[in-house]
Every structure is written in C-alpha cells, then in structure tokens.
Design goal:
8 strands; globular
C-alpha cells in the first residue's frame, strides 16, 4: 500500500519540478516515441524516467528548446494499477487549491469528457518577497484510464506545458487571454496514441 501511495504522489506532483535528470538518457518506454504535433508545434522525445516499477514519465520538446528551460513541452506520465483518472485529477486539483492559498496567481478550471478529466491551470515561481514572477507556467493536463495490448491497466496523464521567464511573463499573460481556449481544445481533441509498456 505504501508503494502505491508513493507512486500516486509522484504522479500528482509534476508541477514546477527540476527537469533534466538522467541527461542524455532518452529511451522510449511507452511505445510513443513521437514526434507529437499539436497546433502545428512539433514535440520530440527528449527525456524519460522510470522512477518506480509502476510509474513512467516522458517529456517532449522542440529542437530549439531545452528541458532545463523550456518554453513548450508535451508530457506523458503513466501510472500502472487500479487508480482512477478522476481520483488523480481530483488530487491534483486539491494540490492546486492548497497552492492558491499562498500564491494568488494559481488558478485552474476542470472539464470532463467521455470519462476523462482535463485540468487547465496556471502556476508561478515568484521572488522571495512576492514582488516579481520569475516563471509563469500554464498547463493543460488530460487524465484518462487505459489498458495496453498486454492487458496492463493504469492512468495516463497527457499534457502540454507552456512557460515564460522574467521579462516575458507580461506578454505571455496578455497572449493567454486571447488564445486560452485554443490549447485546451487541442489537448482535449488530440488522438492520444495507444500506450504499450515495454
């Protein structure tokens, strides 16, 4: 039970983390190597991790981006087991509610479609005194249950993350007001490839 709880926590807490671990090690473990194309933006597999027997993580960026300081990223997380997509999405929303208590920039909306849950949320990394936003991050996460061709079951998190840094934050937020629905709809309608655990 402790191992399952640990995996769920890993799966939920994927925001504002330090990317770039295992640098140079890129091994597709989910049979979806990419590229993944959304809104004409091409994402190529750049980093993978398998931190526990039940948890897999893959990150995709453009050729001009860097994992450590990306502007756009596509991510695919897989948690094997009997967890429900709705439960993991609720846990993520609970986490965001807690973050909002100490950071007023944090905001989110949630949608349900065909048993899947989509969370569109905004988070930030601020200066110590709260006067400046160092990083603004907008994410659209789509949670769904799946069964692969070998009968393995689990929850997949498919998402797009967009970031701006320092002086680019204001322009990022202004543009977001105009284009917010575009990415949400693109993630919601994207034909996610079938997962096959290797």
């Amino acid at each position: 039970m402790k191992r399952i709880t640990y995996c769920v926590i890993l799966f939920i807490i994927t925001t504002m983390q330090a990317f770039g671990q295992n640098k140079g090690m890129v091994k597709d473990q989910l049979s979806i190597p990419g590229p993944i194309v959304i809104l004409k933006y091409v994402y190529t597999l750049a980093w993978t991790s398998h931190p526990s027997p039940a948890y897999y993580k893959q990150e995709y960026i453009s050729a001009s981006d860097k994992i450590e300081k990306y502007k756009k990223m596509c991510l695919v997380d897989v948690l094997l087991g009997d967890a429900k997509a709705a439960d993991l999405a609720k846990a993520k929303m609970d986490e965001l509610k807690q973050l909002k208590q100490i950071n007023p920039i944090v905001n989110f909306e949630a949608f349900q479609k065909n048993g899947e849950v989509i969370i569109d949320f905004l988070i930030s990394d601020n200066s110590a005194d709260g006067s400046k936003v160092n990083i603004i991050e907008r994410n659209v996460y789509r949670y769904r249950n799946f069964t692969d061709k070998n009968g393995k079951k689990g929850v997949m998190l498919f998402g797009i993350s967009e970031r701006a840094y320092g002086n680019d934050v204001t322009a990022f937020l202004a543009n977001l007001k105009k284009t917010k629905a575009e990415l949400t709809n693109a993630v919601a309608s994207f034909a996610i490839p079938d997962v096959s655990i290797k």
